[in-house]
């Protein structure tokens, strides 16, 4: 397996799902994108819509702008828009692409998806804690400001008398 390719940089969020593009997967699996898609089409019953879907023009354009990839030709020199695979679709690819590289890469990809899920859980928990802390501190700050306002009013009252003289 090509150890130089960081897998987590090849996972994107589309349609509310974490996905990988067919060309990135082909690179990781060390096969042509065309071959990968041929194997998928031969086993299409293994790839329902929640495992794999084809990008729209708009999604593809947005994705290419996100990853700063430019191309002189439409769809990166491809005739068709790319397919993307969800975590389950990636797992299914290892059954379709029967090579030692495919198995090894799939294991690494599954580990990466798991790490991303764990990170998301920790991030969500931390986010909830920050929101709660902010909510609690908002009430405290309101109390502090209220107290400061009261002190300011009292100070203005005592300020009216300066060294025994009335202003």
What does this structure look like?
By secondary structure, the chain is of the alpha+beta class. It folds into 2 domains: 7-123, no CATH class; 130-160. Helix content is 59%, strand content 11%. The chain has 5 helices and 6 strands. The chain has helices at residues 22-29, 33-42, 57-66, 87-96, 100-159, and strands at residues 12-14, 17-21, 52-54, 83-86, 161-162, 165-166. It has a 4-stranded antiparallel β-sheet with strand order 1-2-4-3. Strands 5-6 form a two-stranded antiparallel ribbon. A hairpin with a 2-residue loop joins strand 1 (12-14) and strand 2. It is elongated and about 85 Å long. The termini are far apart. 19% of the residues are buried.
Shape verdict = elongated
In the predicted model, the low-confidence regions spanning at least 5 consecutive residues are: 70-75
Give the proportion of residues in helices.
55-70%
The radius of gyration computed from the alpha-carbon positions, rounded to a whole number of angstroms, is 28 Å
- One letter per element, helices H and strands E, the order comes to EEHHEHEHHEE
Question: How many DSSP-defined strands?
Answer: 6
The largest sheet, given as strand count, sense and whether it forms a barrel, is: 4 strands, antiparallel
């Amino acid at each position: 397996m090509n150890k130089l390719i960081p897998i987590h940089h090849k996972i994107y969020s589309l349609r509310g799902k974490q996905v990988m593009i067919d060309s990135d997967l082909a690179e990781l699996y060390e096969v042509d994108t065309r071959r990968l898609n041929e194997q998928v089409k031969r086993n299409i019953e293994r790839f329902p819509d929640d495992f794999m879907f084809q990008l729209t023009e708009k999604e593809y354009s947005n994705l290419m702008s996100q990853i700063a990839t430019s191309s002189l030709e439409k769809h990166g020199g491809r005739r068709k828009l790319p397919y993307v695979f969800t975590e389950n679709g990636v797992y299914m690819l290892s059954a379709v692409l029967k090579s030692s590289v495919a198995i090894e890469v799939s294991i690494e990809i599954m580990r990466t998806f798991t790490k991303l899920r764990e990170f998301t859980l920790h991030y969500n928990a931390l986010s909830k804690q920050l929101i709660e802390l902010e909510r609690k501190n908002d009430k405290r700050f309101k109390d502090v400001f209220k107290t400061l306002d009261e002190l300011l009013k009292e100070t203005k009252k005592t300020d009216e008398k300066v060294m025994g003289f009335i202003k």
